[in-house]
Amino acid sequence: MSRRRTTERNRRxxxxxINNARPGLSLLSEEQKAQVHHYALSILGRTGIRVDSPxxxxxxxxxxxxxxxxxxxxxxxxxxxxxxxxxxxxxDVHDRLGNHVFKLGDDSLxxxxxxxxxxxxxxxxxxxxxxxxxxxxxxxxxxSRLPHYDVISTVGIVQDVPVEQTDLYASLEMIANTTKALVxxxxxxxxxxxxxxxxxxxxxxxxxxxxxxxxxxxVSPLVVNEGTADKLKVAVERGLPVIYSNxxxxxxxxxxxxxxxxxxxxxxxxxxxxxxxxxxPGAPISLGMLPVYFDMKTMMNFYDPQSILIxxxxxxMMAYYGxxxxxxxxxxxxxxxxxxxxDTYWLNTLTFSMTKGGLAPFIGxxxxxKAISPLTLVHVHEIIDQARRFAAGFQLDDEHSVLAEIDxxxxxxxxxxxxxxxxxxxxxxxxxxxxxxxxxxxWQLEGQPAADSTLRERxxxxxxxxxxxxxxxxxxxxGRAFIATL
Length: 486
Known about the structure:
This protein is of the alpha/beta class. The protein is built from 18 helices and 18 strands. The chain has an 11-stranded mixed β-sheet with strand order 8-7-17-16-6-9-10-11-13-14-15. The chain has a 3-stranded mixed β-sheet with strand order 3-2-12. A two-stranded antiparallel sheet has the order 1-18.
C-alpha cells in the first residue's frame, strides 16, 4: 500500500463519526471581529459618550477618576475590556412560577412578542384602533399560548387609562395574564421604580429566580439619555438581569455604511456594558442592536437585507466576547401580516437560527412599529417552527442512511411500507398546523379560500380560547390596589 493511501486511511480512522449535519452561517473572520472591536474601542476612547443623567455621570466620574467635559465621557480601553471580562457569560431566566425555562447565552434561539405599539390591528378587518388594556390582555394571553414564544415583551402603550398610569397598568396586564418571562419596557423613567415595586408587591423579590428583564435603549449617536441611565442604575442595583439594546436609523442617527453603523452601535453597547459593570461588577446584561435604515424621501425607517447582516455581525461579536445576545426580530415592516412582513420575518428568523443564538424579543409589530397585529404572532410562530427544524439539520449515520432498505426495495420499488417510513412518517417531514397540504382539487372543493382567511380564522380561535393564569383575578385586584396608593 502506498504511503499516501496509508496516511489517508489513518486520517479517516481518527476522524470523529459525523452524526448530525447542521447548517451554519458565518459572517466575520476572527481578524474582522478584532478589527470591529478595535473600531468600537477607538470611538469610546476618542469620541466618547454623552451621559445625560447628572447622578449617573457623577458616579462614573468618581469611579473612573476623570472629569467629563459637557457631559462627554471617554472610556479607556482597559476599563471596557475589564467590563467584558466581569460580565456573566449566560443569564438564567425563569418563569413567574420559579421554573428555570432557559439560559440566555447558550447555543439556542429564543423569541418573544412585542413591542410598545400605539395601535391594535384587528385580526378580521385590519382596522386600527388605539391600543387598550383589553388589547394588552388578549395579546399577552395569545403569546403565552403559543409555545415558541419564550418571553412576553411590553406589547403596547395602553391609552384607555390616565397617561400617568400607562406604564403601571400595561405592566400589570403583563404579569397577570401570563406566567412566562417578561421583557419590560417602561417609557416614563419616573414610573420605573414604581413598576418594580408593584411587581415585588405581587410576586416577591424579583432578583431571586428572575423572570423580569428590563429593556433599555440609549439614543444614537453615543448618548446615554437620562431616563436610560437612571433606569439602568435602578435595575442593576436591584440585582435584575437587563437587556441593553440600541436602535439605528442608518443614514440619519448612524452612518449609512454597514461598517460604520456596526462600529458605532457596538461602541454604544460596550458603553452600556461598562456602566453596568461599574455600578455592580458581575451584573447580568444582554446586548443587541435593532439596525434599520432611514429613507429620506419618505421619512420612514425600514429593515434592509444589510440590516440582517448587521444583526448577524452583532450576534458574532457577542459570541466573540462570550456575552448573551439580544437581536432584532425583523419586525415593523409591512402593512399587517402581509407578503412584505413575511419576507423580512423569514429572512431574519432563518439567518438568525443559524447563528450561535440569542433572544429575538419583538415579534408582531407592523406599519413602522406603530401597530401590532395578532395575525403576525400566529404566522411567525410557524416561521419559527420551520426555521428551527432547518437549523437542527439531520442525522447522518449508518442507521439513518438505511442502505439495507434501499437494497431491499431494488430499482423501481417504493418506500411506503419500509420500517424507516412507518416509524418516522409522523415527524419525518414538516406538517403545518395552520395551512393544510391541499391538492388543487381539494382547494377548489373547499371554495378556493385565501391563505390569509385561514390565518384570520385560526388567530381568532386561538385568542378566544387563550386561558388566563389561575391567579389572574388575584393579581389584577392587588395591582389595582397598589396603583391606587400612588
